[in-house]
Write a structure and sequence with these properties.
single chain; about 400 residues; alpha/beta; six-stranded mixed sheet; binds adenosine-5'-diphosphate; binds magnesium ion
């Protein structure tokens, strides 16, 4: 069964610059689709069109009737004053609505109305309420809060006061509680730590519905999707596999196109040389040959079918390798840091040599950023030492960048 159908959809925000240019595709029930494309390729725009938030200039989108579509957006917005708990519980709005109507009908029946239509309506509502988990909302809420690490204390806080990562977790939790058939996920792992990402991967593996996800996280994509749609210059390319398949297949298509292009070019060169010769002979007396040369040139134009395939430029960064001489870059000895009564870490030893690439892993709040700040000298250790090599210069990209205005 088809869950999402996109037919010939175009969208532009500035005249003449089509962000989406005649997109057509379908997504079947239960499919897991990764939506790829560079920043600004129109992925979020396509999602907004799918939810009806935005109208396409041309074409249509439709979702299977009766199916509920849920979106987790890159930038969630909730009314001011909403607590985290309120945001989470807004997932049950639909159930609350059912409950209200059931109470209303029950009231009417108590008053003595006993039309069959009334009873029938009540039964239908009660069935929908039960199958939607109406009697089990608290259990569901607690499960999701455990999985996504949303403790009771956090549920009391204002949603707007949360950090980016916390907002993503809450928003994701709300969406999961909403009991949707089609999930649209816009870069869901952006602010998630490893544990929450894994929890989401497992949740999606068990999820019965359809998933369409935008992501730059190749490991997440490999786990979750079995089909890839790539947006480029407003058009879509399709790949029937996960991210690793996409990478290989894209390379294969590139090579194939390049071969095709080179073959064409060789043929064109050959014909052009022949046409040039004909023109020359025509000048030397045989005027009729011009006509043949011109028709040959027309044929050449028709041959130009394949554009030269382009390859994405890879980002090449070199961190001044020549300055690393394989000697000591940093030594950490017996480092301890605590805030008040809470010890983040103790007895940390580490030696870093030139050229090493190191990932610092750990759950939220375990002190990763604090360790970085200690290395930078922005925080003082309680005990222990950090020593940097004499020629070491540091570059630092913080989690949140603050710009100061003059
Ligand atoms: N409401 C809007 N008004 C004007 N331009 C927009 C609007 N929304 C998106 N765009 C532009 O459309 C392009 C695609 O944006 P977007 O869909 O957010 O890309 P992606 O999600 O793939 O990074 C970008 O150039 C963006 O600046
Ligand atoms: Mg986007």
């Amino acid at each position: 069964m088809i869950d999402i159908s996109v037919s010939n959809v175009s969208k532009e925000f500035e005249v003449g610059n089509r962000i989406l240019d005649g997109l057509t595709f379908q997504v079947d029930t239960g499919e897991r689709v990764g939506l790829l494309g560079k920043n600004g390729a129109g992925k979020t725009t396509l999602f907004r069109i799918l939810t009806g938030e935005l109208e396409p200039d041309e074409g249509q989108v439709s979702t299977a009737s009766g199916k509920r579509v849920g979106l987790i957006s890159q930038i969630p917005v909730y009314p001011v004053g909403y607590t985290v708990d309120r945001v989470l519980r807004s997932a049950f709005d639909r159930l609350k609505e059912l409950e209200r109507e059931m109470t209303f009908l029950a009231g009417r029946m108590e008053q003595g109305e006993d039309e069959t239509a009334l009873l029938k309506r009540y039964d239908a509502l009660a069935a929908a309420f039960e199958s939607g988990g109406g009697y089990d909302t608290e259990t569901a809420l607690n499960k999701v809060c455990n999985g996504l690490d949303i403790p009771g204390e956090m549920r009391e806080r204002q949603f707007s006061d949360l950090s980016g990562g916390e907002k993503t977790r809450v928003n994701l939790g709300r969406l999961i509680l909403e009991d949707t058939d089609v999930l649209l996920l816009d870069e869901p792992t952006n602010h998630l730590d490893l544990r929450a990402t894994e929890w989401l991967e497992e949740y999606l593996a068990r999820f019965k519905g359809t998933v369409l996800t935008i992501s730059h996280d190749r490991y997440f994509l490999d786990k979750v999707v079995n089909r890839v749609i790539e947006l480029e210059n407003g058009k879509a390319e399709f790949y029937a596999g996960n991210y690793s398949f996409y990478v290989e297949e894209k390379e294969r298509r590139y090579e194939e196109k390049l071969k095709q292009y080179e073959k064409e070019q060789a043929k064109i060169e050959q014909l052009q040389a022949a046409a040039d010769k004909l023109h020359l002979w025509a000048f030397m007396g045989n005027d009729k040959l011009h006509k043949r040369a011109f028709s040959m040139e027309k044929r050449i134009e028709r041959l130009r079918k394949t554009d030269k395939p382009k390859k994405d430029r890879k980002l090449e960064i070199r961190f001044g390798e020549r300055e690393f001489r394989g000697d000591e870059v940093m030594v950490i000895k017996d480092l301890k840091k605590s805030f008040g009564a809470r010890t983040l870490f103790d007895h940390v030893d580490l030696e870093v040599e030139g050229g090493e690439r190191i990932a610092l892993l750990g759950d939220n709040g375990t002190g990763k950023s604090t360790l970085i700040k200690l290395i930078l000298g922005e925080e003082e250790p309680d005990s222990g030492k950090i020593r940097l090599g004499p020629t070491v210069r540091l570059g630092y990209l913080p989690q949140i960048i603050h710009f100061s205005y003059p």
